[in-house]
Amino acid sequence: MSVDTLDRPRDGAATGAQAKLSVIDCDIHPMLRSAKSLHPYLSTRWRDFVDSYGPHTRLPFLGSPAYPKATPALSRRDSWPPNGGPPGSDLDFMREQHLDPNGVEYGILQVLYPAVKDQRNLEFAAALARAVNDWQVEEWARPEPRLKASISLPCEDPEAAVAEIERRAGDKHFAQIFLTARTSEPLGRKRYWPIFEAAARHGIPIGIHSGGANGVPLTPGGWHSFYIEDHFGNAVAMQTALASIVFEGVPERWPDLKIVAVEAGFGWVPSWTWRMDRQWARFRDEVPHVAHPPSTYIKRNIWFSTQPIEETDRRRDLRDTLDWVGYDRIVFATDYPHWDFDDPRYAFKVALTDEQQRSIFTGNARAVYGLA
Known about the structure:
Helices cover 36% and strands 10% of the residues. It is an alpha/beta fold. 45% of the residues are buried.
């Protein structure tokens, strides 16, 4: 599969953020340099466990996802650090390749591997969460103040998840709580409410990243054939997770809760919201705990990251979508160092006013995450 290193307009004209505009990147993926990188943060028991048995997630394969990605390590061809290790594992190289040239004022770390929340051994998941969070602070956020960690959680064990939130609450190295869209039960179910309650009580935003493994097919029709379907399905999974949150009454119960939907795009948001509002108008007696149309909660409690930006054939269609979703509800993300990385200089194929640029590239994220 041939993939360009950077997604740029063919005419080379920058239509997004210019060099003078700083960026808050809401989706940066750090990676372990080796399988033993977490050993300093694990007890002897769990170091031995990892060495002997390795992680065991809710996937049919031990060493890879069900649909291995189209390029090695999910990443750009030029993102392998010169001193070794996988993409995203070298802080100095991340500074050189991404943070400095792209004017990243802050970057929100999202740790996809090791997959804390997908571990079948819940006791190990709790230990792994503590280790991953310590690793983020000591090897990324503390040495590089521009980087902010996300609190990884063993979310299938809500008691342990809340304990980890309490442990990290007030630590300015963390900007959000990290969840993924695919959990063992729909994300709005009561088993996850202790997490939402703790997040709201401490004023910590929740970032729901696309992906996750729950051991069942991504589609209602069963296992699909191709990676393209898996990649496309991230948006569908996010819609399902957020609909569950809305219809289970989570934002009604915690009106100050902030949720950021990460790496699922936003082009689907208008029609998805219209459909939910229409269904709510017809069946609202089934969900009396949802006091307002779903659009009320979506526009009050949920933000959407840009990457991957839907690229329409007609630029005015993207403009109409941005107008409807709202320039105050969108935060910028690059997905560095992955192959579908969005360069902030070229990500938007429509012209933005200075105010709109400031809102999307920095202002909205600054407000959501409480960044100075």
